[in-house]
């Protein structure tokens, strides 16, 4: 079987982590690079990735994340926090990065810049916030796949109170909103969930070919 599919069959949403096992710096850097290289609309990456190692902060987050034990037991907690808006200076910085990285004169990018600004400025604040939040799911996908390659367990989480996490981490002051959580580490041998068969729809139920 294709190695990628082997990894997908191996992974699951871990319910109990082994708190004694920690992710190495080398592996964490690999996962960070996988997140950094994730696709996003226009390549803007309108989010920040907060890696929470501090046990006291994680203990504060646990009650507002439905009391899930993974928050404090896992090796690392990652918060995907989307930008609540996209300011003009962020777009300018994006195009400066393109110019510097690819060696393209900034004025050669004016047409694309105008197109991008025009598309974003016509969106409401709510639409921008939702759009930015969606980009974090693409980054989460890269994390899940990269972690499975290293046999590192990841539990993606939407079960938490964003406003409370924002308050604990001071994200509001940074123009950020907690969109997704992910706990990373190694499954505990007592986690019975790892032995359950993966439940998915069949090809016939899932796919439509036109």
Q: Which parts are unreliable, with pLDDT below 50 for 5 consecutive residues or more? A: none
Strand order of the largest sheet: 1-2-4-3
From the 3D coordinates, which CATH architecture would you assign? Answer: 3-Layer(aba) Sandwich
The main sheet comes to: 4 strands, antiparallel
CATH superfamily grouping? NADH Oxidase
In CATH, what is the class?
A: Alpha Beta
Distance between the first and last residues' Cα: 27 Å
- DSSP summary: helix tally: 9
As a whole number of angstroms, the C-alpha radius of gyration is 19 Å
Structural class: alpha+beta
Strands, total number? 4
Overall number of domains: 1
- Which outline best applies? globular
User: Hey, roughly how much beta strand do the residues contain?
Assistant: 5-15%
Percentage of residues in helical conformation: 40-55%
State the order of secondary-structure elements, H for helix, E for strand.
Answer: HHEHHEHHHEHEH
The overall pLDDT, averaged over residues, is 96
In the CATH hierarchy, the third-tier topology is known as NADH Oxidase
Would you kindly provide a written description of the structure presented here, covering whatever features stand out?
It contains nine helices and four strands, in the order H-H-E-H-H-E-H-H-H-E-H-E-H. With 210 residues, it is α+β, with helices and mostly antiparallel strands. It has a four-stranded antiparallel beta sheet, sandwiched between helices. It has a single domain, classed as NADH Oxidase (3-Layer(aba) Sandwich). Helix 2 packs across helix 7. InterPro entries: NfsB-like, Nitroreductase, Nitroreductase-like. GO terms for molecular function: oxidoreductase activity. Belongs to the nitroreductase family. Keywords: Flavoprotein, FMN, NADP, Oxidoreductase. It comes from Flavobacterium cellulosilyticum.
């Amino acid at each position: 079987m294709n190695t990628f599919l082997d990894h997908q069959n191996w992974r699951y949403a871990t319910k109990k982590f082994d708190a004694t096992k920690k992710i190495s710096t080398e592996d964490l850097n690999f996962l960070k690079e996988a997140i950094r290289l994730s696709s996003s609309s226009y390549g803007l990456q309108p989010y920040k990735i907060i890696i929470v190692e501090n046990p006291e902060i994680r203990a504060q987050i646990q009650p507002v994340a439905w009391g899930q034990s993974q928050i404090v037991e896992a090796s690392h907690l990652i918060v995907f926090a989307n930008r609540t808006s996209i300011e003009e200076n962020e777009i300018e910085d994006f195009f400066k990065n393109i110019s510097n990285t690819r060696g393209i004169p900034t004025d050669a990018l004016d047409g694309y810049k105008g197109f991008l600004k025009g598309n974003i400025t016509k969106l409401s604040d709510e639409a921008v916030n939702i759009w930015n939040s969606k980009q974090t799911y693409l980054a989460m996908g890269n994390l899940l796949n990269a972690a499975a390659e290293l046999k590192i367990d990841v539990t993606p989480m939407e079960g938490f109170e964003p406003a409370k996490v924002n308050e604990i981490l001071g994200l509001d002051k940074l123009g950020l909103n907690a969109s997704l959580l992910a706990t990373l580490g190694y499954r505990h041998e007592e986690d019975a969930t790892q032995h359950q068969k993966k439940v998915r729809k069949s090809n016939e139920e899932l796919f439509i070919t036109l």
